[in-house]
Amino acid sequence: MANSYEMIAARVTGVEQITPLIKRFTLVRQDGQALPGFTGGSHIIVQMQGADGRRFSNAYSLMSDPADTREYQIGVRLEEQSKGGSAFMHGEVQVGSELTISTPNNLFALDPAAGKHVLIAGGIGITPFLAQLHELRAQGTDYELHYAFRAPEHGAFQDELNAGPHAARTQFYIDSLERKLDLAGLLGNLAADAHVYVCGPKPLIDAVIATAKLLGIADRRVHWEQFAATPASGGAFTVVLAKSGRELRVEEGMSILQAIEKTNAAQVECLCREGVCGTCETRILEGEAEHFDQYLSDEEKAAQQTMMLCVSRARSERLVLDL
């Protein structure tokens, strides 16, 4: 069931403008102790509170070296349709700001069974790979990084990658310069023991998954992560809260969590609102869910035992939940 996080009081010790839309934030514990250990691909939940009392909560990949837990680093892209979190981080957070962060969780870990790791990043999707690169180099494992972005000024951390120990294993693809990523060519030459990892915009993730399927690459060898909630699509449906007997209509474009909060029908904890933290996992008593989260495994989704209220919807007209 729902994941349990320890929350940590943190302080911002560094803010760097990396590209016009991306900032890097360095965080330490307020009590001066070391932060919890993590592995490449891990994320944390960052909770923010404005002077007006508004609260925001977003998930961000850890991009610093897992071997050094004196500090964490995250990269935050200013989203055009921000729900408030990225705008707050860019506009309000500065050196000395105090935030609350969660202990790390990893839904995008490197697979130890892989003989080679092929990393494909798009835009801000580079961040989890930066931590994984530290691990791969330390382990002496074979890897390569393919990083695509719109224009030279949007290539976050490109200079660091070019100047660092991963330069020979990194290739850049820049749309404005007509340097396109050829997924069919890349994945078509994949070794039998190689695994593919992709993080970035949904079109890139979908293209990698589709190309891998077309080439007959097993699903277990393709790993992906996207920190953006899938838009609530599909028609309206009814949710029944079994403990109170209340029935709620979840309209098109609305999440179950939003419908519950709008009517104060139940208390539901949710840290991320993006289907990655697991805190809003709820048991399904009747009906079937259309799962859009990244927290549950494919087997757990098929079992239809639980769902994430922040992003997932009903496949049936009526859904009864253990709330």
From TrEMBL:
GO molecular function, one term: oxidoreductase activity, acting on paired donors, with incorporation or reduction of molecular oxygen, NAD(P)H as one donor, and incorporation of one atom of oxygen
UniProt protein name: Carnitine monooxygenase reductase subunit
InterPro entries (alphabetical): 2Fe-2S_ferredoxin-like_sf (IPR036010), 2Fe-2S_ferredoxin-type (IPR001041), 2Fe2S_fd_BS (IPR006058), Beta-grasp_dom_sf (IPR012675), Carnitine_monoox_B (IPR039003), FAD-bd_FR_type (IPR017927), FNR_nucleotide-bd (IPR039261), MRET (IPR050415)
EC class (word): oxidoreductase
GO biological process: carnitine metabolic process
Record-listed E.C. numbers: 1.14.13.239
Amino acids binding [2Fe-2S] cluster: 272, 277, 280, 310
2Fe-2S ferredoxin-type domain residues: 237-323
Pathway terms, separated by semicolons: Amine and polyamine metabolism; carnitine metabolism
Cofactor: record remark: Binds 1 2Fe-2S cluster.
Function: Converts carnitine to trimethylamine and malic semialdehyde.
Lineage summary: Bacteria, Pseudomonadati, Pseudomonadota, Gammaproteobacteria, Pseudomonadales
Stretches assigned to the FAD-binding FR-type domain: 5-111
Assembly behavior: Composed of an oxygenase subunit and a reductase subunit.
Family: Belongs to the PDR/VanB family. CntB subfamily.
Catalytic activity: (R)-carnitine + NADPH + O2 + H(+) = (3R)-3-hydroxy-4-oxobutanoate + trimethylamine + NADP(+) + H2O; (R)-carnitine + NADH + O2 + H(+) = (3R)-3-hydroxy-4-oxobutanoate + trimethylamine + NAD(+) + H2O
Gene source species: Pseudomonas cavernae
Cofactor names: [2Fe-2S] cluster; FMN
Keyword annotations: 2Fe-2S, Flavoprotein, FMN, Iron, Iron-sulfur, Metal-binding, NAD, NADP, Oxidoreductase
